[in-house]
Amino acid sequence: MNQTEQLAAVKAYTISKLGQDSTGHGMDHINRVVRMSKRLANGENVDPFLPIVAAYLHDTIDEKLVKNINAAKEELIAYLNKNEFSPDQVQQIMDVIDNISFAHTLDGEQINLSIVGQIVRDADWLDAIGAIGITRAIYYGGGHHEKIYDPAIKPRYNMSREEYRNLANETIINHFDEKLLHLKDMMNTATAKKIAAHRQQVMLDYLAEFHAEWNAEK
Ligand code: ADP
Ligand code: NI
């Protein structure tokens, strides 16, 4: 199997798992993360093949999206083996998608990501900020019946992983303070840092406008 065929197989696998997703992890998110991973890999002079593969697969074993993580992992590993990824490649891919979630950065867990992992995590997090990030937060918040905003509900910081997963009374605007505004400083690659700085300003401008309108100042 050549790399083009392997990529097609990986893409088909992801579509079979996430094609029907409506939680903000559908193929539109995946395709943006793939495009960004390619761009970041080029910026780092890294062969884009594994970053692209890991980008396609990064949400297929997510704890929020699958019932049994171990079964999902085993199914994926068997699929990669069947599609002639080498044992080293399978290990690298699984290492990346095991370790890139935001939840892993809570509870002070230290994770040493490979360069492929750094690229895919940057690409995933870039998709949570800027204009796209604003849109995804509103989409997610609406789907979860969150309030748009409530000045009486203060943003919470330094949450544990459990607390983050079980947040009650979340508002869409608080999600920026609790997560989205912090992602910029957690980027790894030089290209992602630059893109994140721009997207941060887009969010800050949006939030300033939001609060001004909320208070009838504009
Ligand atoms: P990830 O893909 O990093 O695992 P999540 O599944 O937590 O992210 O979130 C998917 C999208 O929804 C992201 O853009 C995220 O910022 C947004 N989101 C997550 N939780 C909330 C929330 N409580 N309110 C608003 N948006 C959220
Ligand atoms: Ni993702």
Automatic annotation (TrEMBL):
SUPFAM superfamilies with a match to the protein in the record: HD-domain/PDEase-like
Protein name per UniProt: HD domain-containing protein
InterPro entries the record matches: HD_domain (IPR006674)
Domain of life: Bacteria
Stretches assigned to the HD domain: 28-128
